Amino acid sequence: MQETDLIQGLQKGQEEAFQKLVAMYKSRLYNTALGLLQNENDAEDVTQEVFIKVFQAVRHFKGESGLSTWLYRITVSHSLDLLRKKKRQKNGGLWQNWFTKKEEEWNEPDFYHPGAAAEQKEMSAVLFKAIRQLPEPQQVAFLLQKMENLGQSEIATIMKTTVGAVESLLQRAKANLKKILEGYYQKHYK
Amino acid sequence: MNEGMRKRIDETLQSLDNLQRAEANAYLYSKICNRIQERKGLIPQDIAWRMMLALLTISLVNLFTIRQLEAKKKDYNGAELVAKEYAIMLPTTY
């Protein structure tokens, strides 16, 4: 089924089209949400919510961007919303948030991505914790590139920005991750 | 920074390079359909909020009107009310 047929089917409310859409994109969206949320239950919850949103809003989809771009965009936005909500709940409001040390991020439980090779599980868990400490746009750009192998132009469309901006986000993300990891290994690895 | 640490940092940064995509739950489609069915009878949250706000506004307007009417009633005694109703001039006492 072509993408245009799929969209038309969805807009007509065809169950078969919706089933096809879920089968085609469920793992991509789940994987993206998993990278951002670092929690399997939350990632599954977000993936379900994304498909429900698509089911309800596909009539308004004008096709200005590709279907996958639209789906990734909704997934990123839902994941970030949940992440912010959880952060607020954990930190107990704005005041406490200001006094929360970045150090506490390292005390979060380890996240082992199910797709990581056995010999890289520990290192990827450290990297995921470091990614959590990046500013949101850097996290999004870095994870979309690493986890979904998306190109800079596709990431730019998803994030509604320019290719140049994505390039700069990725460079800054890598530089910041190096700094964060340096600090971590100085403390934890002798 | 020593060579060992630099190597470790580089390895950590590359640890996501060969990551396999995580597979979503095989029953995801059924779960989504169940969630959609569960929500069909429910009023969407944004509409529910608007309805609550409208109800609150109507209640406040009602309360305000009742208080205004009661205040007006207090301004007149019984004779004055009848006089006002039938447009009769009451005798003034000095």
Key features of this structure:
heterodimer; A: 190 residues; mainly alpha; 9 helices; 73% helix; elongated; B: 68% helix
What do these coordinates show?
The complex is a heterodimer of chains A (190) and B (94). Chain A is mostly helical and 190 residues long. Helices cover 73% and strands 0% of the residues of chain A. Chain A has helices at residues 3-11, 15-37, 40-57, 67-91, 94-99, 121-132, 136-148, 152-158, 163-188. Chain B is mainly alpha-helical and 94 residues long. Chain B has helices spanning 3-13, 28-40, 45-75, 78-86. Classes of the chains: A mainly alpha (190), B mainly alpha (94). At the A-B interface, helix 2, helix 3, helix 6, helix 7 and helix 9 of A face helix 1 and helix 2 of B.
Helix % of chain A is over 70%
Query: Globular, elongated, flat, extended or rod-shaped: what is the shape of chain B?
Result: elongated
Could you give the count of β-strands of chain B? 0
Largest sheet of chain B: none
Question: Which stretches of chain A are low in confidence, meaning pLDDT under 50 for 5 or more residues running?
Answer: none
Instruction: Estimate the global geometry of chain A from the Cα principal axes.
Output: elongated
- Average pLDDT reading of chain A: 90
Distance between the termini of chain A: 56 Å
Total helical segments of chain A: 9
Rg measurement of chain B, Å: 37 Å
Mean pLDDT of chain B: 86
Oligomer: heterodimer
Q: How many DSSP H or I helices of chain B?
A: 4
Estimated share of beta-strand residues of chain B: under 5%
Largest sheet of chain A: none
Structural class of chain B: mainly alpha
- Spans of chain B of at least 5 consecutive residues whose pLDDT stays below 50 are none
Number of strands of chain A: 0
Order of helices and strands of chain B: HHHH
